[in-house]
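Let's practice the habit of predicting before peeking. Look at the sequence and jot down your guess about where helices and strands might fall. Then scroll down.
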Amino acid sequence: MVSADRLLAFAAMSFLLIVVPGPSVLFVIGRALAQGRRAALTTVVGNTLGAYVLVVAVASGIGTVVERSVLLFTALKLTGAACLVYLGVRAWRGRGSLHASFTGGDGAGRSGLRTFWEGFAVGVSNPKTIVFFAAVLPQFVDRGQGHVIVQMLVLGLVFNAIAVASDCVWGLTAATARDWFARSPRRLSMDGGVGGLAMIGLGVTVATTGRKD
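Done guessing? Here is the structure:
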């Protein structure tokens, strides 16, 4: 199994990556501002599951192929970017109806399952996480101890545990700010618009940055 020193070193490196807001964090914040606390937390759960699918992919060797293939990496990156832009446009267009849905309950009228799968799509297509898992995760595996796949899965759980805690803090903080906006229909509409624009901007950023080789 993974030694304590390797586990702590990986946790420290994961923390450094996670605390710097990337696509997943910014998406959670945008979702919290646009739709509230429940949608943000549901997004975190979906996002986390999507990220762990990447861990499983790397552990089985698929992640290395994606990381080394410009075509596959770019396709996955653009898919995630398109998803973000689509969700941002939808949040922007629906900003005028936010007050009615807010007074009807946090996240009322929206499918929790759909929110979950949208979060999953962002998590599984996050280029920042793909590169980290494919390039960094294998370096913390002690091949002399055997059970390489199990070691990677355990390390992935450590990463996801830190990510869940961080994303929840970001989401709940943003949702609390939304509560203040909700006291005024005009402020809430502006808040939903900001959340939508943030997701659109994030999608464009994801699409235009990253590997150029």
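How did you do? The radius of gyration is 18 Å.
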